Amino acid sequence: MNASPESLIRSEILAMSAYAVPSSAGMVKLDAMENPYTLPDSLRREIGELVASCEINRYPDPSAPALKRRLRMEMKISDEYDILLGNGSDELIQIMIQACARQGATIMAPGPTFAMYRQYAVIAGLDYVGVPLAPDFSIDLDGFLSAMRQYRPAIVFISYPNNPTGNLFSADAMERILTEAPGLVVVDEAYQPFADGTFMTRLPEFQNLVMLRTVSKLGLAGLRLGYAVALPDWVSQFNKVRSPYNVNVLTQLIAERVLAHGGVLREQALAIRVERAKLASALGSMSDVIPFPSEANFILARVPDAPLVHEGLRQRGILIKNLHGMHPLLDQCVRFTIGTPAENVLLIEALRAILNTRGVAVADRVG
Ligand code: PMP
């Protein structure tokens, strides 16, 4: 037997790294844009009863009618559009790319942005073009439009607000891209619960617009549920690529029940927004930290030495994301997910200690 991974696996896959998730046991977890709050006890009990009575010996209903009805109500989705459910919005990104993976097709996004657009494009054997944002993280519209003319992307992904920069792009720039795109434009609103803008209400204006959402950042990351909303002609094609039972029975039941108490999640999102403002001002008051404005549940910040800050926080039991080296625009940048008030205080205190120590260390060396 002469088979080896090198002889069988495609070179693009061999060259890739798997999505890395660091161990977080016992850590203050501010690295993955999770909602830090838990559900009220009464709702947790209801979920316990639902799970106890669930027929897990049966396959889930792939059309998930109760959950879709609830999503329509809660997210104000009109009957003219169909909903595609995914095992996280990650899976929906992959489904849409796979469905459009004609030979030589291109996927495009302004960047830096969510890494999985590129990852899934490469997995599908497609070209990926990341068009650099302007230094203030706005879309370089001329650059983007000219890249679209050159590469004719099958799908443009726009993270709105953008991960990891946290900002909402200008609605004017988005409209131009939607109007001039030769293919689909997926507006990925993973962070919409924390933002003041949405394109969901703009669906009637653009036949090529697909809205992508998730319940992960709202507070249900562990359930793995994402949804895409688009004209039925698109959704019926994507449905062919979807695995038959991709959203399991427990996810369907629990998500439907929690969304029926949608007020709880909305209040938590509001609390996160309040904490975001406090964290932004605390970071802004530190002389060597530059926080960037955010409409998401995280804040991107430039620090004097991102690897040192990341490691210093890790040693103090706080996990954040180091983005240094991931994109030229992210030089010395780290991303802090908004935690509970107590976690955010811990973060700021630890950051002060690390940056002060660093100041002393540098002064010592210079001296
Ligand atoms: N889109 C964006 C912009 C994200 O940042 C993420 C997760 N970090 C996702 C989609 C995927 O989220 P999920 O698979 O949990 O729905």
Layout of helices and strands, plus pairs?
Layout: H1 5-8, H2 11-14, E1 28-29, H3 41-53, H4 65-75, E2 82-86, H5 88-99, E3 106-111, H6 115-123, E4 127-132, H7 141-151, E5 155-159, H8 171-180, E6 184-188, E7 209-214, H9 216-220, E8 226-230, H10 232-241, H11 249-260, H12 262-284, E9 290-291, E10 298-302, H13 306-315, E11 318-319, E12 321-322, E13 333-337, H14 341-366
Parallel strand pairs: 1-11, 3-4, 3-5, 5-6, 6-7
Antiparallel strand pairs: 2-8, 7-8, 9-10, 10-13, 12-13
Helix pairs in contact: 3-11, 4-11, 5-6, 5-10, 7-8, 12-14, 13-14
This protein binds 4'-deoxy-4'-aminopyridoxal-5'-phosphate.
Key features of this structure:
binds 4'-deoxy-4'-aminopyridoxal-5'-phosphate, 367 residues, Aspartate Aminotransferase, domain 2, Aspartate Aminotransferase, domain 1, alpha/beta, four-stranded antiparallel beta sheet
Kindly describe this structure:
The protein has helices spanning 5-8, 11-14, 41-53, 65-75, 88-99, 115-123, 141-151, 171-180, 216-220, 232-241, 249-260, 262-284, 306-315, 341-366, and strands at 28-29, 82-86, 106-111, 127-132, 155-159, 184-188, 209-214, 226-230, 290-291, 298-302, 318-319, 321-322, 333-337. By secondary structure, it is an alpha/beta fold. It folds into two domains: 5-38 and 263-359, Alpha-Beta Complex (Aspartate Aminotransferase, domain 1), CATH 3.90.1150; 58-261, Aspartate Aminotransferase, domain 2 (3-Layer(aba) Sandwich). The strands form three sheets. The chain has a seven-stranded mixed beta sheet with strand order 2-8-7-6-5-3-4, sandwiched between helices. A four-stranded antiparallel beta sheet has the order 9-10-13-12. Strands 1-11 form a two-stranded parallel sheet. Helix 13 (306-315) crosses helix 14. The chain is globular. The termini are far apart. 40% of the residues are buried.
